């Protein structure tokens, strides 16, 4: 397997200057090579990306120059190869970055609100027994009790089973 990957990398590297489509494959091959040559450190990179990356879903264009700039800034900082003072750079460009991220985050939140409302409306339409409270909470009673209702000062004990399904939205 290793021989095939190295051979493919050599071919891709040779042809990359002639065929633009192979440039991205060459990068992919290099990343795969890192995964096989030093799996623990590659796993650390995967872990960091999973921890940090999720916070920026929908905020950064992952397929274009924005992602390349983010990766370059991360790489240069991690390797201590910055040619500028990082604090001064953040002070100069941080406000613009914050503005961009806030605008994009607002767009993501608006999209999620619309999707949430659509989901709630569909759930109510498909479940005749579903109940929507004044606060907007929706629930589907499995078995309603017939005892006294608690007051605001009552102590209650709740037993039973429940499920919650969370769907991650990209």
TrEMBL record:
Residues 42-139 form the Peptidyl-prolyl cis-trans isomerase FKBP-type N-terminal domain. GO terms for biological process: protein folding. Residues 1-16 form the signal peptide. It holds the Pfam family FKBP_N. This is Peptidyl-prolyl cis-trans isomerase FKBP-type N-terminal domain-containing protein. Keywords: Signal. Coiled coil: none annotated.
